[in-house]
Amino acid sequence: MGLLGRVVNTLGAPIDGKGPVEHDGFSPIEVIAPGVIERQSVDQPVQTGYKSVDAMIPIGRGQRELIIGDRQTGKTAMAIDAIINQRDSGIKCVYVAIGQKASTISNVVRKLEEHGALSNTIVVVATASESAALQYLAPYAGCAMGEYFRDRGEDALIVYDDLSKQAVAYRQVSLLLRRPPGREAFPGDVFYLHSRLLERASRVNAEYVENFTKGEVKGKTGSLTALPIIETQAGDVSAFVPTNVISITDGQIFLETNLFNSGIRPAVNPGISVSRVGGAAQTKIIKKLSGGIRTALAQYR
């Protein structure tokens, strides 16, 4: 796929100055998620490279694991490190930057390049200077690129950085369209905005892949693992958008300002952080070794 190693905008046009993108077709950005029959249970791990996450809050291939916390708590750093860790694992990565400064995105691309992970990654960018409509559509465009690999029996990882900015962009568009505002001035369908996006991250069975590729790929399952990021205000997890996304995802990694400031990196709060399906994806030895960590930490704190 010609998009790997490239930086593109929401419409798939290159913005990295490396010439036109070689492609073998187009796909719609809005797709209905795979049904229950087409899915397979999550039983293979995605190693993030963080011992605390891989031991206590394991992530499986096809899972949706939310990274949530205040600003400057290391959310993007954790997601980027997870992408870098997939360099030799065969997992293709998509990084979607929504409403961020161009300088921040430039640093992310440079970091991926330095660690040899850019050749395995597609970076989709909708900067803060772009229209609200493009910021709102960027995650769906990135998801369509990730689904390309999933539907062909490969494993992919997608990071949405961050979905709270997408919700703000969607609120702007909705208010301009004179749609009735609800709680925190968000429109009534802001839950559907995120649920239809995150439901597309899944592990699909071999039959689905075989049907999609018309028999070209046989006996392989595909997966799209999502790491959405949500920024909270003053640690308020009970705000409208955070609670919505927590209810859609299969668990969350909560990063705390106090832990970050006291020098604990990653600043994961093991009390609030959970992984609802990742335990099934852990190898037996890691499961055995990590069994008492959470209890020991709870007693220590």
TrEMBL record:
Matches recorded under Gene3D superfamilies: 3.40.50.12240
Pfam families: ATP-synt_ab
Enzyme class: hydrolase
Record has Hydrolase as a keyword: yes
Subcellular location(s) per record: Membrane
Gene that this polypeptide is encoded by: atpA_2
All residue ranges annotated as the ATPase F1/V1/A1 complex alpha/beta subunit nucleotide-binding domain in the record: 49-275
GO MF term list: ADP binding; ATP binding; hydrolase activity; proton-transporting ATP synthase activity, rotational mechanism
SUPFAM superfamilies assigned to the protein according to its UniProt record, in alphabetical order: P-loop containing nucleoside triphosphate hydrolases
CDD domains hit by this protein: F1-ATPase_alpha_CD (cd01132)
Organism: Raoultella terrigena
UniProt-listed InterPro entries: ATP_synth_F1_a_nt-bd_dom (IPR033732), ATP_synth_F1_asu (IPR005294), ATPase_a/bsu_AS (IPR020003), ATPase_F1/V1/A1_a/bsu_nucl-bd (IPR000194), P-loop_NTPase (IPR027417)
Top-level taxonomic group: Bacteria
Gene Ontology CC entries for this record: proton-transporting ATP synthase complex
Record-given protein name: ATP synthase subunit alpha
EC identifiers of the protein: 3.6.3.14
UniProt keyword list: ATP synthesis, ATP-binding, Cell membrane, CF(1), Hydrogen ion transport, Hydrolase, Ion transport, Membrane, Nucleotide-binding, Transport
Family: Belongs to the ATPase alpha/beta chains family.
